[in-house]
Request: fold
Amino acid sequence: MSIVDLLVTIVVVTILVTIVLAVVTYVAYKLRLSREPAQAEEAGGLQYFVEFRPPRIDAEPLTEGSHGHATQT
Amino acid sequence: MSGRPSVWSGLAVVVISVGLTVALMIAAMLVGPAIQAVIVRMAVVSLIIFLTVLFLRYFALLWFAYLGHAERNVLGVRELKRLPPVSILVPAYNEGVVMERALTSLMQIDYPEYEVLVIDDGSKDDTLRIASEWEGVRGRGTFRVITKSNGGKASSLNAGIAHSKHPLIFCMDADSYVEPRTLLQAARHFGDPSVGAVAGNVKVENRNTLITKLQALEYIEGLNMPRRAQGFVAAVNIVPGPVGMFRREALEEVGGYDTDTFAEDADLTLKMMAAGWRIEYEDTAVAWSEAPERWRDLVQQRYRWTRGILQAIRKRRGIFLRPFPDFPLWVSTLQLAFEALIWPVMNVLAHLFFAIVAILFGSGELIVYWMILLTLLDLVAALVTVSMEEEDLSLVPMAFLYRFVFILFLDVVKSFATLEELFRLEMGWGKLQRVAGT
Reply:
């Protein structure tokens, strides 16, 4: 096999493998989308889980040199 | 726009496209020698046309990018005498993992006066809690947080515009971070009263894998270089989401962001250009962004970009029939349509065609010489663009994989996305998984 034939083989295989990988990855992405849960129903629909939001603590006023992080006792 | 995307229709598009291609390949094998000779001649003609378009595109972009670079370095920009205050908008949806870094960078900005407004778009994680801890005065900036029910990035940005108060508005992403002088470098362009927006320079921060290094090169060569070229005629066609500064007056004139596309940045930029505003590019207004590290996440991102851009173009398709009076707008929109709609399909079909002809008819030498030529061109373009941006030269060797693997991969994805958009299949936002690289 000459060097040109070798290069041709490498180039053709690279093109085809890249295209096949792109198609496969695209299909995988589409299949992943099909497994995502649907949007929650609007108010009035069934809800099995209720989201918990911790009560917001008002931050301390910032003073010079402080980070002002709120603390929860 | 929301709702479960039509997955099976999308898969049908893939199956039909691949099936047709395979059928054509088999048909090519079964035809007689006379027709095969015609096919080979068609391959040569296609190669010449494809290469001509490729070279013209490359040289035009490189030339105008160089002109823009040289003009900036020699003439500078028309600067503001006094820097006006800026409102920085940070829309966030489930960005708790990465947002702290963005806010920290905003605290370190070198600018006389600015406010930061984080808009929580109904996040389900601890985004709101993290943002709330930042409220108050931080460095030279004042940080505020507003929260709203989930409505998408465009609606978040519109809410931010409504709640902000300064004459310049800087929009960024919660998964990006800016450099201390980013605002300064962008703001000085607004000394020209006809400038409506300035597009900044997005760079990839997480360059730790092959896929992210290729994206880093792509951002420099494939995104920023065209913006630099478009900036020479002040007709940048996309002000990127991670780093864009706008004149409030211009935003209010065009009615802010529309919520009917998945590429609100492209949509808004085209809207502003159509209203007559100049859109400039500033390569020193830098924002570092996290690029997808998994191939499926990359597919998701590029799928959304492609369909969003096509949606934005479709809304303004009348521009294609009106080259005057705004010729730069016409060229810029044409270039956007070409890059999003025509070039990916042309690129994939050309590669596939040549591979098939090489396998079936043994015309491989032609392809090898073509590949060598293109690789050399890619290396030169990579060297020029990386040097213009004073970037890491170790990205230049990525050019060997850039066209025949990375861009070909993306163009296959873009082609399928284009077909889905042409058939108006439903789509959703999806959400990339954040990794918050160190």
User: Anything to note?
Assistant: The two ends of chain B are 35 Å apart (CA to CA).
